[in-house]
Q: What sequence folds into this?
C-alpha cells in the first residue's frame, strides 16, 4: 500500500471569471470517491493565496485529486486534476490547471514511509498583550531572545514528549527574562486588563476563516501572564510551516501579532520561540517539539460518530478527526494509519 500526504495548495492564477475563486477538492482512492476538502463549503482563493489541505491517504493502485470552483448560478467549474500512482516516491509539487478556465494552482505532496517528522505545538504564553509596549521595549525584548531560548531550553532539555507542567515552567522562565527589562512590567500593568482575542493561521493573511487554532471557537481570550495549552496540535513537517498569531478585531482589520517559521529540516528537539510585533506592541512565547513519530493504527469507525459545529468536526470517544471529509457516515469506514490527534489521517476501502 502506498501512502501520500497533501500539503500546501497555492493559487498562481485564478479562473477567467475574475475575483477570488471558491475552491474545493474531491478525492478518489483506487477509483472510489472518499470525500472532499473542505468538509463543507469552499475556500476563497485569490492570486498568492495559500491554504493547507493537510490530509494523507493510503491506496493500492492510484490516488486522484480533482480541483473545482463552486458556481452558484450554473454547474461547478472543473479546475484540473492529478493522479498519483502507488509506484511513486519522494516529494514535490504538481500543477492543477484547466486551460479552458485559465486557473493555475500548485499542490505540494510527499509519499510517506512508516515514520513521519511531526511538529507538536504545546502551549503559548502571553508576556505582553497587544498595544501594551512601545517599540523601544519591543526592541530590547528581541535582543534577549537568545537568553530566553537558553533558559527555557535548560528546563525542557531533550525530554521526549515533555509534560504540560514542565512546558509551563519553561515558558514562565523565558518570560522572567523579559521582565528584567526596565519599565516593561509597569508598561504592561498600565495598559489595562483586557485580553487579546488570539487565533493562529498557516498563512500571512488575516481572517478567522483561515485559522487552524482555536477550533471550533473563533478566538481564545488571553491576558498577560496566562498560558494556553494547544492540546498537542500535531502537523507533518513534510514542508516548512509558517505560523502567524493574530488578534481578532470586529471593528477593523485583525492585528498581526507576529510570525515564526518551523523549517522542515529542523533538528528534532524541544523549542521555545519568541513572537513579537513592534507595530502592535506584543510579546508571546510558543513552545513546540519536533520528532519522528510512528503512524498509529486505529480500529474501525462505524457508528456513534457525531457531528460537531456545522459538521466540521467528527468525534468518537476522546478521539477527534478535524477537517474530515466523510460523505456517508451511515456506511462503515475503516480508518487505518491515523496520526493522532488531528489533521492527518488515512482512508482505506469500505468494509464489506
A:
Amino acid at each position: 500500500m502506498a501512502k501520500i500526504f497533501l500539503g500546501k495548495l497555492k493559487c498562481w492564477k485564478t479562473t477567467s471569471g475574475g475575483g477570488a475563486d471558491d475552491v474545493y477538492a474531491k478525492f478518489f482512492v483506487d477509483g472510489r470517491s472518499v470525500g472532499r476538502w473542505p468538509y463543507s463549503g469552499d475556500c476563497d482563493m485569490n492570486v498568492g493565496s495559500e491554504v493547507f489541505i493537510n490530509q494523507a491517504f493510503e491506496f493500492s493502485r492510484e490516488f486522484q485529486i480533482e480541483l473545482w470552483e463552486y458556481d452558484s448560478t450554473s454547474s461547478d467549474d472543473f479546475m484540473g486534476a492529478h493522479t498519483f500512482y502507488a509506484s511513486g516516491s519522494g516529494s514535490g509539487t504538481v500543477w492543477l490547471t484547466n486551460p479552458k478556465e485559465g486557473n493555475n494552482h500548485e499542490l505540494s505532496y510527499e509519499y510517506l514511509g512508516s515514520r513521519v517528522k511531526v511538529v507538536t505545538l504545546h502551549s503559548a504564553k502571553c508576556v505582553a498583550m497587544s498595544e501594551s509596549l512601545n517599540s523601544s521595549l519591543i526592541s530590547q525584548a528581541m535582543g534577549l531572545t537568545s537568553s530566553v531560548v537558553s533558559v527555557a531550553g535548560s528546563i525542557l532539555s531533550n525530554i521526549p514528549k515533555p509534560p504540560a507542567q514542565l512546558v509551563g515552567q519553561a515558558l514562565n522562565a523565558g518570560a522572567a527574562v523579559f521582565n528584567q527589562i526596565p519599565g516593561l512590567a509597569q508598561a504592561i500593568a498600565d495598559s489595562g486588563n483586557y485580553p487579546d482575542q488570539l487565533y493562529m493561521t498557516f498563512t500571512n493573511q488575516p481572517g478567522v476563516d483561515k485559522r487552524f487554532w482555536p477550533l471550533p471557537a473563533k478566538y481564545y481570550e488571553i491576558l498577560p501572564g496566562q498560558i494556553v495549552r494547544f492540546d498537542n496540535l500535531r502537523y507533518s513537517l513534510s514542508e516548512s510551516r509558517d505560523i502567524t498569531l493574530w488578534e481578532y478585531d470586529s471593528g477593523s482589520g485583525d492585528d498581526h501579532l507576529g510570525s515564526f517559521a518551523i523549517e522542515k529540516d529542523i533538528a528534532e528537539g524541544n523549542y521555545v520561540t519568541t513572537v513579537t510585533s513592534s507595530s502592535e506592541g506584543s510579546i508571546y512565547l510558543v513552545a513546540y517539539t519536533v520528532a519522528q513519530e510512528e503512524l498509529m493504527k486505529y480500529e474501525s469507525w462505524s457508528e456513534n460518530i457525531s457531528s460537531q459545529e456545522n459538521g466540521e468536526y467528527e468525534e468518537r470517544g476522546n478521539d477527534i478527526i478535524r477537517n474530515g471529509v466523510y460523505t456517508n457516515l451511515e456506511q462503515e469506514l475503516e480508518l487505518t494509519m491515523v496520526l493522532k490527534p488531528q489533521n492527518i489521517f488515512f482512508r482505506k476501502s469500505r468494509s464489506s
Remarks:
- The CA atoms of residues 80 and 97 lie 5 Å apart.
- Residues 296-352 have pLDDT under 50 and may be disordered.
- The longest helix spans residues 164-178.
- The first strand starts at residue 2 and ends at 13.
